[in-house]
Structures are given as C-alpha cells and as structure tokens.
Amino acid sequence: MTSKQRIQAVINHRQPDRVAVDFGATTVTGIHCKVIAELREHYGLEKKPVKIVEPFQMLGEVDEELQQIIGTDCVPVFGPRNMFGISETEWHQQRTPWGQEVMISSGIDLTPDARGDIYVYPKNDRTAPPSGIMPSGCYFFNAIERQQQIVEERLDPADNLEEFGPISDSDLDYFTKAVDKAASTGKAVVASFGGTALGDVAMVPGLDMIAPKGIRSVAEWYMSTLLRPEYIQEIYSRQIDIAIKNYEKLWARVGDKVDVMYICGTDFGTQDSQFCSPETFSELWLPHYKRMTDWVHANTSWKIFKHSCGAILPLMEKFIEAGIDIINPVQINAKDMDSQVLKDRFGDRITFWGGGIDTQQVLPNGTPAQIKEHVKQQCEVLGQNGGFVFTSVHNVQANVATESLVAMIDALQEIRGIK
Questions:
Q1: Are 418 and 49 in contact (CB under 8 A)?
Q2: Nearest-CA neighbor of 405 among 183, 413, 322?
Q3: Half-sphere exposure (CA, 13 Å, Cβ side) for 249?
Q4: Rg of the chain (C-alpha set)
Q5: DSSP states of 187-219 as a string?
Q6: Tens digits of residue pLDDT in 86-112
Q7: Residue 44 has pLDDT above 80, yes or no
Q8: pLDDT category of residue 357 using cuts at 50, 70 and 90
Q9: Which residues are CB-contacts of 225 (< 8 A; sequence separation ≥ 6)?
Q10: How far is CA 70 from the centre of its chain?
Q11: How many CA atoms lie within 13 A of 186 on its CB side?
C-alpha cells in the first residue's frame, strides 16, 4: 500500500498492510521544535534551523527526512496565516531563549524584553496590545486575553464572528497550490482550512485581532454556554453557514486530493470529567456539527477530524451521531478512556487518530523498554480492523528526552516490519 492508500483503508475501517502513522500533519499531532532538532542530531541529519510551522505551540516541521525515519503517512496543509494573523509565507532566522536556531515567521520577533519575556502582536501590528506571551523559561506562547467590558444589552453575535468570513480568492489560490504540493508526495493530505472553531478556547481570545470585541475571555465563554446559550447558538449557526459556502469553493478547487479535514480543537473533556453533559452537547453543539458534517459527507469525499482532549467516553456516541469520522488525541490516561473499551464500543464507527503513546507519563518518564512495550500494546488493541492512526496523545513536548522518542520510533519500525 502507498501511504495514501493506507490512510484511506484505515479511515474506512479496513485493515491496512501495516500501522498507519502521523506526526506533523496537524497542530495537535506535532512535535516541539526543540525535540525536532534533537531528533535530527540523533539520526545524523544535516544541522539546520528548524522551521516553525505553528508558533503558538512552537511546533517544528517534520520534514521529508524525518517523515522517512518515523514512517509518517500524512502531510499537512496549513493556512497562509498563523493564529496571530501573521503571514506564514515569509521567514527569518532567530535564536530561541533556549539557544536553538529556528526559522520563524518574519512577523514574529523572539527577542526577549528586560524580564526575559517575548511578546507577539496581532497581525504584527505593534501599535496594538500584544495577544501572546512566551514567559521567561517557557517553551511556547500563552494567549493574552483582551476582554473589553461586557454590556449585556450591547452584545452582538457578529462581534464573535469578526474573524470568520468568506474565503478570499487569494486564500483559495494559496490552498490550491498547497494541496497540489502535498498531494504530489503520495501521502495522505490533512487540510486545516479553518472556520469551524465552535467554541475552541484557543480561538476565543481572538489572537489575530487588533481589538477583539464580544466574549473573548475563556472563563466568560464557558459561563456563556450556560448563561447566554442563544448568543452562542447564533454564533455557531452563522459559523457553519460561512464554512459550508467556503467548503463549496474549496472542494471545487482541491477535490479528493484532500483526504482528511481538521475542523476544530474544541475540548469537551477534563482529566476526570467533561465540560458539559451529553444533553448539553446535544442541544448546543450537535446540530451545528451535524449540519456541517452532513454537507461534507454528501458533497465531498473528505473525512472529518475532530480534536477533543480528556475523559470523553460519555460523549463518544454523540460525536458519532454528529457525523465526526475521526477523534483525536484519544487521551488514554484520562478517566475511563481505556483503549480496549473504546475499541470494542466505538472502533467500527469512528477512527482513533491518537492514543499510540501516553504523553503524560509513559513518554516523558518511561524507560525505553517500557515505551516499546506500551507502543506495541496500544497498536495491538487499537489497530485491529482499521480505524487507527498511530500518533501520540497530543503534541510531543519540549521536555521529552531524545532516547524516549527514539524508543517509540524503534518500536513502530519493528511493528511495521521495516526494521
């Protein structure tokens, strides 16, 4: 099987020739740039600045050389601008606070201030308040909330829709070229078109906006799902209206060259519970997801990739009812998220894109032998009859030792019969 055929088999619940793998195809299946550099050094690859493909989390590019070593079957298509609304088409070389040379968007300056903090500005407009900060000693950016005073009678759903709108001709051209390039690799293409956040708290603060209006505090947003449900419903409904029109244009341009579409990272689970009940999900989110997924399934060949961390077992049936094809990161270390239970109950109806290795305990703290055994066990449980793409439980963080990630890669190569 080719990589594209392998992913197609898996997401259609057919047994592939070997375990399918993704590292780097989305912003939730990535590897921190520090670890990318260490992996390159370990494998004797050319020393060069790592390209930052997602600056908010400082994720590094998994380039062709590392794709070959890890055995990845997917490649990404990201948008022309990052979360801060800054162009991802022009780059410059800079040194990170931890001493690593990277290539990063020209609109981001990694020079620390007197306190050792690094700030980033929406659309690189230095006259606006900063929307992100990398505190001294940190390895990624945090959002800076710029919530204006909320006046109930003046709240307008349009204020929370300012960053969503019809796709421009220039963006259509960008995605067309990016998809063509990705498809030429022979790997499966995972596209992040954007536009369907539906309450993704990473997007709520409006990091790309000069002066965000509406509800832009994460805490206020969560409270609004209970206190202002009509307001939230209107935002979601309009988001889906806009998204479907954009998808029509995108499908006309890229068609089935795209295999999987990442829709959003709205989290519904904590470590031990859920942010909402199944009943609340059914009322506030499910109709909007389903309207979007129904259109995609009726008019395209794309499979829909949904990210949600946490203990989401009670919501799995709802995700399936909503038309979600793929769930990530499959947080096997959260309450009741037992791999065998998940596979037995839902494995023939939804694809598990993740759950390959626990990134809270096993990957950062396990011995190489423990890591290899864990990887083999996860592949045995989740890999039966398709419906499984191996990747870590969320992104690989900067504190992961090289030998630990190499142990994971070694185990994968053994399982896949390429070592």
A1: no
A2: 413
A3: 16
A4: 21
A5: SEEEE------SS-TTTTT-TT-SS--S---HH
A6: 999 999 999 999 999 999 999 999 999
A7: yes
A8: very high
A9: 199, 232, 276, 280, 284
A10: 19
A11: 6
